[in-house]
C-alpha cells in the first residue's frame, strides 16, 4: 500500500478540542471483520461485545506535563522546551525540542519558574536542528525533580488541538489506567474507560492485563514517503511482564477466547513481544514496530481504537487489522453519522 491510500479531507470532520465529561458516553462503532457488518452504539455498552475469558490489554503509561516555558541566561529571551524523553535518570539528562532553536547553543543555561524557586538546566548537546540534550542542575532525588516539572509544565496536547493546555488537562488527558510516568501522548482508546465500566466488564469474567509503552512525540510525525516500507517509526520504550505474557499465551492456547488490545500502543507492544513460536515473550526495551497492511497479527484478535488522522501510522495499523476497504467504509460511516474524530473523539471496536 502507498501513502496516498490513506489521504482524506478533514475540513468537514467533527474534531473536538476537549474530551466528553462522561468518558464512556462516546459513540462506539463495532466492526465485525468476518461478516463485514457495522453496528452503532455507545462506549458504555462495549461489555456486550466482550466474552467471558477474553483478556483486554491496556497501556498503563502516564502522560507528564512536558511543555516548559522558560528563559535563556543573560538575554532573558523567552524559550519553550518540550521534554521528549528521559535519557539518563541518574544524570538528569533529557532529550528535548527547543523553540526558537536558533538561539540555543551548547553550554547555555535555561531557567524555569519564579526567581526564588528557579529550576535550571544546561544544554549539553545538539541532536537535530531543533533538538537538544539538556541536564537539569538539580540537587535532590529524581522524584523531587519530577514533582517540580509537574508543577511547572503544561500538558503536551496533540498538535491538531489548537487551544492552549489548561490545568484540568493534567487529569483529563489521561486514562484511568495511567500509573507509569513517561508518555507525551495519551493512549486515546483507553480514555473512554471508566472505573465503573471496567468493573462491569470484569464481572463477565474478563481480565484486564497491563503493558507499558511510553508513547513519544513521533506518533504525530507525518509519514513522508510514498512507499510505506521505507518509513521508520521513532522508537518507544516498552515493557511487558511475565504475568501478562503468560496469561496472553494461556488465552491463545484456548483458541475460543480473544486477546483484545486497547489502543494501537497496546497492540504494538504485544505484537513486539511475539516469539518465533507465535507466543508472547516478556521483556523490556525499545520498539520501532510499524504495522501497516498487509500484516499478519499473531496475538491481537480484537482492537479498540479511535478514529485517527489521515496518513497517520495509527490509521495504517487499524487498516491492517480491519482490512483496508472495510476500514475506509467505516470512516465514511463515521462521517455520515458525525462521529467525533482523533484524540478526544469516538471509538471503534474491531472484532
TrEMBL record:
Pathway: tRNA modification; tRNA-queuosine biosynthesis. Belongs to the QueA family. GO terms for biological process: tRNA queuosine(34) biosynthetic process. It is found in: Cytoplasm. This is S-adenosylmethionine:tRNA ribosyltransferase-isomerase. It comes from the Bacteria. Transfers and isomerizes the ribose moiety from AdoMet to the 7-aminomethyl group of 7-deazaguanine (preQ1-tRNA) to give epoxyqueuosine (oQ-tRNA). Its EC number is 2.4.99.17. One of its GO terms (molecular function) is S-adenosylmethionine:tRNA ribosyltransferase-isomerase activity. Monomer. GO terms for cellular component: cytoplasm. Keywords: Cytoplasm, Glycosyltransferase, Queuosine biosynthesis, S-adenosyl-L-methionine, Transferase. It catalyses: 7-aminomethyl-7-carbaguanosine(34) in tRNA + S-adenosyl-L-methionine = epoxyqueuosine(34) in tRNA + adenine + L-methionine + 2 H(+). Coiled coil: none annotated.
